Amino acid sequence: MKTHWKFWTGVFFIWLIATGMDRLWWQHQTGLPAWDQADYLNSALDHGRALGLLTGGGWQGWKALLDLSPKIPPLASIINGSVIAIAGDAPEQAAWSLSLWHGILLISVAGWGLQLRNEVLGLLAASLVAITPALLQLRSDYVLEMPLAAGVTLALWQLGNWLHPHQGGHWRQALIAALTCSIALLIKQSALLVLLPAAVWASAMALRRSNKSQLQLIAGAGIVTLSVFPWLRHNWITTLGGTNRAVMEAAVKEGDPSIFTLENWNWYPRILSDQIGPIILIFGISGCVLWILLKHSIYNTSQKNKDNKEGWKWLIISFILGWFLTSLLPNKDARYIAPLIPPLILLCARGWLEWGIWWQHFWPSKSPNKLMLFVSLGFTAALPTAWQSQVSLLKKNHQGPLKEIIQEVIVASPQESKITMIVVPSTPDLNQHNVSYFGRRQGGQLVGRQLGTSRNDVKPVLAHSQWIVLAEGDQGSVSESAPFLDKAIRSSGVFKLVRQFPRLEGGSYSLWHRQPKARQKRNFAKTFPKLAKGLQKGPKGFEPIFAEVALEHMLDGHFKYIDPVRKTALEKLSNNPKDIEAHWSLALLAILANRPYEASKELSTLEELLPQSPWPSAYRSIVLLAGWNPWEAAVVADKAQQIHNNPILAGLGDLSGVMGGALWRLPAAKASIPQAIRAVDTALQKTRKN
């Protein structure tokens, strides 16, 4: 749709003014990023380094890049990391990426409003988006909901363009819609909550139309699949596990209401006034009611600018479906409905416009700007809520001595290039995530790891750790066992107190360092081969192996054991290609690194070296399945089952077969998979008893 350049110039000025206010806010925001914010900053830093844009990293291939996004797609972090490379890595500099995403959101809302009615609606909607409290907060909070809102709004707008029965149906629109849907999904998988029902509806409409629309639908689905598949294929197991923890487990932990209660369905409506702003919401909803009631009146039918009925139908239905699916999500948070706020703002903007049209019709004036004057007055009335929202955020700044602690460690360790700091407390102003971010700024290599969640952490920390941070006073969100680790460190004589740092809210943080006389006892590189060989025991060996590896990854955030283990194993194999321990070491390293092909290669060799053991075949079937090769996984499991007659192999064979398309194996799978699970559980229970 062609429009005058003044319209897009107006959108640009809205962004410019909003960005100027954002930068002013960030200048006064002197607090530290808390858990989520620091985690996303770390992700952006990781991706910037992996792309070779930031000091401290370099390009190591696509697999290494995909390793950095095990639970959430990488696109936002790639773009944010690129912005950091240009703007700088201080939190307020990294926030320029939020301004970029906000610009995309404004363009999407303004363009969508233009399609729905006219330039006035587009500019009004963009202006309201710029001052909506919830979206203002997301421009001031380093989380993924601003990129997500921008991506989902852009995708819904373009899907609606393609779906329109009179103006849509073109190949260019179909391709753009598919690309924008891919962008949204590669920002965060929760985009599915809004896009999936909208896409299903759009697909149903397309299937009822011409062959051309059906071909476009197939092509679009292919583009989305090809875009998302590389990341999903590489990280599907960790993504499922992470989604379960973020959605199901978090909902239980936080006490969110059941979906079968009225409280669940009222959870988001009751916070709308705070998120949208009472002025915007009241004027918007009442104006929409007026629009519906008077749509057949003389003043409405005589308007020069007619509403795009099909466009409004698409917006309203996709909004309702998205709201319904989001409300079904067990975990509740105010920012989770961020992708639905822009469509709602468009509806509110239409309501505002209706009041202006009604006022202009019943109180006619010779002034051509009467409508804009009315809209401007309403906009001005909504500003105080936006201002108050931002001022209240400044009062919640998390202050602490984090930077001073990091600097103290770096100055005291000039010879150490890679440092791991154990963080026992977990507060908004000091936690493992923001320690890692500030420790790795400007090419640094200091990472934070939190221990103390189990009493079993005490001995390894005393035996291995170099730098530790403790808290005097509020410990934050730590487990009940954390005080035992705290007490053990203070009384052990292994660590000496370097310095205490006062906290503004009372109490202090204390930095502790291992004394030279306290020899480091743990050498995981030497322990690893024996642990890896424990895989020969089958499920009995799982827990001790992965418990030790998980603990080591906390004690050593740089995984410095990997290179020595690999080097030793390769040296052994150069002297003896049949060294079983070396093959187990390389197989376990490949499994931990999410390299199914390399793991399968080592396990294939172990199948030949250990013909009496079913476990190399079982593991190989699992890693092949993890690598999206269910056909070969089924062949491996079935072949081994003929030799070993093992219930776990039987279950793996049937599961792989069904996943590979052998649906005739479903009856067998219904019996064999539960038997395999019981066999694993029994073995694990025996291990725990011992």
What can you see in these coordinates?
The protein has 690 residues and is mainly α. The chain has 3 domains: 5-31 and 95-394, no CATH class; 402-514, 3-Layer(aba) Sandwich (D-Maltodextrin-Binding Protein, domain 2), CATH 3.40.190; 524-689, Tetratricopeptide repeat domain (Serine Threonine Protein Phosphatase 5, Tetratricopeptide repeat, Alpha Horseshoe), CATH 1.25.40. Helix content is 67%, strand content 4%. The chain is built from 32 helices and 5 strands. It has helices spanning 5-28, 35-50, 62-66, 75-87, 91-94, 96-116, 119-131, 133-138, 145-163, 171-187, 192-207, 211-254, 262-266, 272-276, 278-293, 298-301, 309-328, 341-362, 370-394, 402-412, 432-440, 458-464, 482-491, 524-533, 542-555, 562-575, 580-592, 596-609, 615-626, 630-644, 647-659, 666-689; strands spanning 419-423, 446-450, 467-472, 495-502, 508-514. Strand 4 and strand 5 (508-514) form a beta hairpin. Helix 28 (596-609) runs antiparallel to helix 29. The radius of gyration is 29 Å and the shape is globular. The N and C termini lie far apart (72 Å). The model has no long low-confidence stretch (mean pLDDT 89).
Tally of DSSP helical segments: 32
Class of secondary structure makeup: mainly alpha
Q: What is the approximate shape?
A: globular
**How far apart, in Å, are the first and last alpha carbons?**
72 Å
Mean pLDDT: 89
Main beta-sheet strand count, sense and barrel state: 5 strands, mixed
Radius of gyration: 29 Å
Number of domains: 3
